[in-house]
Prior knowledge:
Layout: E1 10-18, H1 25-33, E2 40-41, E3 57-58, H2 76-81, H3 85-100, E4 121-127, H4 134-155, H5 158-165, H6 175-178, H7 182-191, E5 196-200, H8 206-219, E6 225-232, H9 237-245, E7 274-282, H10 283-288, E8 295-304, H11 314-328, E9 335-338, H12 345-358, E10 364-367, H13 371-374, H14 381-395, E11 397-398, E12 424-425, E13 430-437, E14 441-448
Parallel strand pairs: 4-5, 4-6, 9-10, 9-13
Antiparallel strand pairs: 1-7, 1-8, 2-3, 6-7, 8-14, 11-12, 13-14
Helix pairs in contact: 3-7, 4-5, 8-14, 11-12
Amino acid sequence: MRRFDDNERYVVTGMGLVSPVGNDPETAWRNILAGEHGVQYARDTLFKGYETLPIYVAAPVEGFDLTSDPAFADRRNDIRAKWDMCQQFTLWAGAQALRMAGLNSVESLRVEDHGLDPKRFGVYMGTGVGGTNHLGEAAVLLHDERIRYEQAVAEGDEELIERMRDGTRIHPRLILKTLPGRVAGTPAMEFGAKAFWEGILKECASGNAAIISAIEAIKLGKADVVLAGGVEGDITPVTTGLFGAARAVSKEKDPALASRPLDAGRSGLVMGQGAGALVIETLEHAQKRGAPIISEIIGYAENSDAKDETEPDPDNVIECMNEAVRMTGRKIEGVAINPHATSTPVGDAAEMHAVSQVFPPDEVIAITAIKSYTGHTFGGAGAVEAVFSNQTLRDQKSPAIRNLENPMEETAGYEHALSADQPIEGEIKMVVNNSFGFGGNNAITIFANPR
Length: 451
């Protein structure tokens, strides 16, 4: 293990994405710039049969089939038996990111087959709930078995009683779908990460926190290359109902109008699916192996409010932003901000108040709100939006904000940086990517084009 080194420069060399607006970075970016969103009416599909659930829209991933990736074409048995959708998403996004980073083989994505030392390659993946939705599946099976068993006892059916005592109908590998840490463990196994793997569980800040963890692992000498990202795999009546009971989800029936971050008429978030993945390494390491340099991560910060489960502490958010900016060592200028902006009344207001205390309006070129297109991908949001942050840098273009009809009062002074009609273009020198989770989990990353 190398000694701690804080003088290195850390770069992104690969990116992958699965999202409600497209299942690769370029398709999704093209759709967002064109104003296309992934929110749809879901009462007759995802929420069918749950009439008491007062939620009507969601932003699911469409057209996804892991076996269409040649590396997983023959893995249908694994998909059926042990890979939850969130694991499949991380494999898909991870495969894209590794290929972009120079692992050019179509069929083999084991890093040792491409000149990387597997003992110097690690995985961090964040999630909110992972595959825990399958616990409900197991609970239903156990409930049905209990009823059958009680009926057999009442009828004196000794043969059935003996057979049921031999074992449950729960699939022996179902546990591999339910453990949230498998969002990192599965890609680590498939891609050959022998340095470490870890699931990052920081609610909606998980994706950004995974990126930060990757940089710090490299600083500490634990790895040379890290695959980092975040994912949320399922939109179920249970998860949606829980968020809805917390009064966090929009009850809007029109999918085109439901997600409206930073707008005075915002009424709650829209449940979304997706995953983002980045390959992170030092600039020196990337140059030595001839990897493409997509961006440099010039600043980051994390902290915890330790105050309230759902209401953010603006002062602590301000400190987190300030710490990330201090790390850059650069003047605040040419800033594009990708706020967390979930479309909730309290969260958006607190975040924009914090932004106003750190980033002078004259130095902010653009503020976007990706969740107006994708909904809120929870544990995946920070990583999904990191991909779009990198594309903002590359194209010097920040997407417009859908449904921004009446900007909330906390955006005063930033009118020039808000667009509801078309992307904002300008000399963007850094992109600030914010993520905030329940319990006051704050994680911020700042990307720039390498100098």
